[in-house]
Amino acid sequence: MITPRTRDLVDGVWTDCADDLGFDLEDPGTGEPRGRALGSSPDRVEEALAAAGRVALPWAEAGRRAEVLEEAARALAGRAGEIARLESFATGVPIRQTVSLGAIVHGAFALAAAQVRAGLLLSVRDGVEVHRLPWGPALCLVPWNAPAPMVAHKAASALAAGCPVIVKVSEYAPHGTQVLAEVLHEVLPPGVFQLVHGGPRTGALLAGDARIGAVSFTGGLAGGRSVAAACAAGLRPAQLELGGNNPLVVMPDAATEAAARSAAELLTTLNGQWCRALGRLIVPRGRLGELVEATGERLAALRAGDPLSEETQFGPLVHSAHVRRVREAVAAAGGRATAYGNVPDKGNFVPPTLITGADLAGEVFGPVAAVVPYDTVEEAVALANASRYGLEGYVVGADEERALALARRVRAGEVKVNGSSVMSLHLFTPRPAWGLSGLGEEGTAETVLFFTGARVVGVERAP
C-alpha cells in the first residue's frame, strides 16, 4: 500500500504538510520506513485558529446542524472501507477490527444529529429556559491507536454543540482521519472543521491558545497533564481520557473457558494498544494454573501476520520505539514472563505475554498482563482497586448477581460483567474516568454537553 500524502485542511484549503518532524513513519507489518512524518507549519496553525474564531458565531447560530451531521454520516458510511484500510496500515491493528470500528465513524455523526433533534441543547420547565450554548472553537487531540473513530466521536459532538472544530491527530497515524476531513470539507462551511498535523509542539501551541474554548484529549498521562495545565491557566474546560491498568477479576465460580476467552480478547484487541485493555488478570489462587493454561492456549491459537489480511487476528505494534517500550516494561516487571504463539520475525511484533509472580503498576499499552492470585473475594476487590488508574474493570462469573455485587465495588468508570468488547455497556451510558485515568465523562450525550455551557433565562415571579 502506498503511503498517502500528509495534508492539512485549514479554512477550507488543503495543503501538503512540509514541516519535517524528524523521524520516519513505519510500516508496522514490516518495520520498514514508509515516508517522513510531516506536520503543519506554525503559520498554518495560526490560520486555523483565526478561521475557527471567525466562524464560531455563524456556526453556533446555524439552524441546520442536524441535517448537515446526517449528510456527513451517510457520506462516511460509503467510505468506511477506505478509512479501515488506512487505519490498519498506520497502526498495525488487523483489518477485521478496523472494519468493525469503522461503524463508529459514521455512527457518531448520526448519533450527534439525533441529540440535536431530541432537544438536548434546550429545556424549558415552569417557564424557565435552560440553553446549552457552545464554548466556542473546540480542540480535539487524538492518539494513534484508533484515530478515526475517536475523531468522529469528538468532532461530531462538538459540531452538534455548535462549536467549530480543530483536530490534531497523532503524527504516527495521520491518514485515516484525512478521509473523514474530505467528507466534512464537502458538507461544512470553510473553517468549521479543520485538520492539522504535528507532534507535541503543535498540540501545545493549540491547547495553550486563548481562542480555544474547550479541549477534548485522549492519550497518555503526561500529555493529559500538559493539556490540563494549559486549560487551567485560562480556566477553560478540559475533557481527558488517559491510560488504564484495567483488572479482570475471575470469580471463584467462573467457567474456565469463559474466563480465558475474556482475558485473551481483552489482551489482544487492537494488539493490546488501547486504554481499556487488560492489565491485571486477578484469579483464585487455587485455579491460577488452569486459567493461565487455558488463556495461553487461546493466545497461542491466534493468527498473527499482515494487518491488511482478513485472516489476521493479531497484528504488530505501531512502531519500533513502542516495541522497545513494551519489552522494557516486561523486563522491569520481574516475575516470569511467558509469550504465546508464533509471530513473524519481521515487523513490530510483540507476542501476547502473561507475567506470573509479579504485578504491573502502570500501563503497558501492549499485549502484556500480570496474573495476580487472590485467596478471598475481599482480597480480589482490594487488588482490583490497588491501581492509581480507574478507567475500566471486568468481572467474569457464573452467578451474575455475585459478579455484579463485586463489580459495584471496583473503582473504575465502567465495569463490565461477562463482557470484553470495545463498546460501552449501552449506547446512552457515560464513560467516566477515575483517578489517573482522566477527568470528566465521554458519551453520546455527555460529550455534546461538554462542549457547551448553560445559560438560564426566565422571568422571576413573586412567590
From TrEMBL:
Keywords: Oxidoreductase. Its EC number is 1.2.1.39. GO terms for molecular function: phenylacetaldehyde dehydrogenase (NAD+) activity. It is an enzyme of class 1 (oxidoreductase). SUPFAM superfamilies: ALDH-like. InterPro entries: Ald_DH/histidinol_DH, Ald_DH_C, Ald_DH_CS_GLU, Ald_DH_N, Aldehyde_DH_dom. The active site is at residue 241. Residues 14-456 form the Aldehyde dehydrogenase domain. Belongs to the aldehyde dehydrogenase family. This is Phenylacetaldehyde dehydrogenase. The lineage of its organism: Bacteria, Bacillati, Actinomycetota, Actinomycetes, Streptosporangiales.
